[in-house]
Amino acid sequence: MTTQPRKILVTCALPYANGAIHLGHMLEHIQADIWVRFQRMRGNKIHFVCADDAHGTPIMLNADKLGITPEELIAKAKADHVRDFAGFNISFDNYHSTHSEENKQLTAEIYNKLKANGFIKSKVISQLFDPEKNMFLPDRFVKGTCPKCKAEDQYGDNCEVCASTYSPMDLINPRSAVSGATPVVKESEHFFFDLPAFEGMLKNGHVLAHFNLKLRTKCKNGLRVVYNNGIFHVMHLISVLKFPAQKINSSMFG
After folding, report:
1. Same domain, 94 and 16
2. Which of 74, 82, 130, 250 lies at a C-alpha separation of 20 to 30 Å from 151?
């Protein structure tokens, strides 16, 4: 009996476009490459793809520190990553970047379809704002005194001394980890994906049927947290597009 070749899509965790490839990256990609080469030798059709994760506040801040644009930092990181992977003969079929026209168009399409069907919700949230850098501060970009144990120089999400978790707004004497300035409180509109609307489908046994027991349990526990919190933040989706969410429409992307 002739067995039809399998079609297999393989990828690895995307390296962040903010620094060099480290041993952890290389270990994972070499292991994947060994498996990919084995499958090719068996006659299976493999699509081995990966990309740089090119979005996030650390990239913007590092580029500012280096005196270059985020786009220049992203381009340099990709060139370095491609060179390093090629030096270890990693056999990608395609190595790309999340900072691409294809990703922008696909993200816009996903967002617009979700919004058109009523699955994007908005909510005004109070956040700490750096008046010197003119930017909102994620929790890891705020430092101050722990509101529980009073340990100093702790991040805005948890204390490394007493292990307490809290909101950046709870910090005593908060300061921006970016500029050192005292942040002010400002409101901003955030956009959320209405994940609980899909609770029935996601809890359906067929969706998780191909996962092993440990992974099924982890997914169910994670979904339970999301259901309890109500909605799922989609600001990463918006950051990929680099446009204010309320102004996104398909005409912007041709």
Report:
1. yes
2. 130
